[in-house]
Write a structure and sequence with these properties.
- With about 325 residues, the protein is an alpha/beta fold.
- It has one domain: Aldolase class I (TIM Barrel).
- The protein is built from eleven helices and twelve strands.
- It has a twelve-stranded mixed beta sheet.
- A hairpin with a 4-residue loop joins strand 10 and strand 11.
Length: about 325
């Protein structure tokens, strides 16, 4: 990956937050139907012509990089259901100024493709896994229990590859999988991996209630009864509260979106699969770059639209109950 640019960051919002991180959803489709991510009744997938082409994604990415973005994460839906994804990864990986190219995946299609993804320029990999119990995994993902083996094979392949980091994302839900917290800590202790415990967040029709939220302080207290954790120095813009496990190989983190938000240091912007810029995960407002590009907008015009979107970014997201009532997209449609 080329050396970073030294241009001043133009992606500064009204509260002084610099934005260096762009999450790009490459598809809204997914081969799982996780309860916390997708509405019970499902969704109507976008038509192919509604999605950004790889060329359009690369164009927008280059604009964001010129404006100050240094990290891009590919998301979905499930990004690996997008045909020829390594071509996009190679295109993005060649861009001057990009320091980190990451991807979040459910790992169902990962085994057998890990080496190609790494060779294409992917440097970090986040994998979603909410249970080590096949039947429970199947119930959460609303998918055949056989898929669990494919996910574990994908994780095994990722851990054998030389990625800069491999992270396991666990959405913790009270009464669903919170009894496995210590199992995930033990997995982190034995492997070169960062396990991230994520507080259950409200999205459109995902059956969220406050009673299902397990706060990071409660998780930390539970883990502290069995393991000695050491707080690591945080990157100011990091979403996770990071801890080393004494005597262990890996680390654990806590994403406290509900109980202790990190809005004041947020450095993230999002591009949906159909080309909408979202300045905040929980804020419904969107800016349509896709239609502007297809009508002939110049790079300068697109930059102006991005800055307009950034100006609409709120200082902080509203309370959870208000988020749950907002007419926002489902998690799977945004890209997380």
């Amino acid at each position: 990956m080329a050396a970073p640019q030294t241009l001043a960051n133009r992606l500064v919002d009204g509260f002084g937050r610099e934005h260096t991180y762009l999450r790009i959803s490459v598809t809204d489709r997914c081969n799982l139907r996780c309860t916390y991510c997708m509405p019970v009744e499902g969704l109507a997938w976008k038509k192919r012509q509604e999605l950004l082409t790889f060329e359009e994604i690369e164009r927008v990415a280059a604009i964001f990089i010129e404006m100050g973005v240094t990290k891009i994460r590919l998301t979905g839906g499930e990004p690996m259901v997008r045909k020829d994804l390594p071509l996009l990864i190679r295109g993005l990986g060649r861009m001057d100024g990009l320091k980190t190219l990451a991807m979040t995946t459910n790992a169902t299609l990962l085994a057998g493709h890990v080496e190609d993804l790494y060779a294409s320029g992917l440097s970090q990999l986040n994998i979603s896994l909410d249970s080590f119990k096949p039947e429970r995994f199947s119930a959460i993902a609303r998918q055949d229990v056989k898929v669990f083996d494919a996910v574990m094979a994908g994780i095994d392949g990722a851990l054998k590859q030389n990625f800069a980091s491999v992270k396991i994302n666990v959405v913790v839900m009270s009464g669903v999988n919170d009894d496995e917290i210590l199992d995930f800590v033990e997995f982190a202790a034995k492997n070169r991996v960062n396990v991230r415990f994520i507080e259950y967040m409200p999205f459109k029709d995902n059956q969220w209630t406050n009673e299902k939220v397990v706060t990071y302080k409660d998780m930390l207290a539970l883990i502290g009864e069995h393991y000695q954790l050491r707080k690591l120095e945080d990157d100011r813009s990091a979403v996770g509260k990071d801890y080393a496990i004494e005597g262990g190989i890996g680390t654990v983190s806590f994403i406290s979106s509900m109980s202790d938000s990190f809005c004041s240091t947020c450095n993230r912007l999002r591009l949906t699969a159909d080309g909408q810029v979202k300045s905040c995960l929980f804020y419904p407002a969107e800016t349509n770059l896709r239609d502007a590009m297809r009508l002939g907008a110049t790079d300068s015009t697109l930059q102006g639209m991005i800055l307009d979107s950034l100006r609409m970014k709120p200082e902080a997201h509203p309370p959870a109950e208000e988020i749950a009532a907002n007419d926002n997209r489902a998690m799977i449609e945004i890209g997380g």
